[in-house]
Amino acid sequence: MTGSGTRPQARGLLPPDTTEDIRARKAGVAVLPIGSFEQHGAFLPLVTDTVIACTIAREIAAAYPVLLLPPLTISCSHEHAAWPGTVSISAATLHAVVRDIADSLRRSGVDALVLVNGHGGNYVLRNVVQESAATGTRMALFPGSADWNTARTEAGIQTPAPSDMHAGEVETSILLHAHPELVRPGYESSDFLADDRRHLLTLGMPAYTESGVIGRPSLASAGKGKELLTALVDSFAEYLSLLTEKEAR
Q: Does the keyword Zinc apply (predicted)?
C-alpha cells in the first residue's frame, strides 16, 4: 500500500480473539470485512477500502455480540486497473470465497454471516446474499444504501452521494478519524467531480478522472468520520435483529 508502510494489523484491525473467547461469547453471527486493493488518489492508500471495512466491522463487534473475522483484502477492482498497484480477483472467485467461508462457519456452529463491504465495485456480493436466501443460509450485506444515507445526513456530509464516488468526503473523513496516519497531505486540494459516469463499467475510471479521485475530499474531517461510524453502528442493530430472530425460530 502507499503511505508510511503502516500495516492494518498494527492498528488493531485484525480480531484478537482466541478459541476460548469465541466459545464463551457464543456468537451466532459472524462479520466479514471485505475491502479492496486499489488506487485512491495520491493521498489515500491502496488499502483504503479494506481499512474502512475493518473499521466499521470493529466498531460493530465492540457494540454487538458478533464474531469478527479478518478481512478479504483483494476483491473486484477492475475499473481501477489503469493505476499502478491495483490488484483484482474475478467476481466468480470472490463469490466462491465468500460461499466457502459461510459454509465453514456453519460447520463450526455459526449460522449467519454479515458481509461488511467497503468497495462499491463488489457487485457480486449482492448476488451472494440474494442466493443465500434460497438455500436457507442467513446472510446480509452491510452497510446498505439507506444506512449510508442516514449516516451521511447525521454526519453532515455535504457532497451528494452520487458525487462522492471515490476518495471523497466520506472515505477521507473515516480515515481522518480512525487512521489519520494513513492520510497524506493533498486531500485539501484534490476535489474533482464527474457525475455523469454512465459508461463506467465499459470504460473504467480513467475515462472520468485523471487523478483517481471523484468527490470532494477537501470537505472531509475527523469529526464527520466519527459521526459516520456512530450512525452505521446504530443501523446495524436492525440487521442483527433480523438474523437472530430467524436463529431463534
A: yes
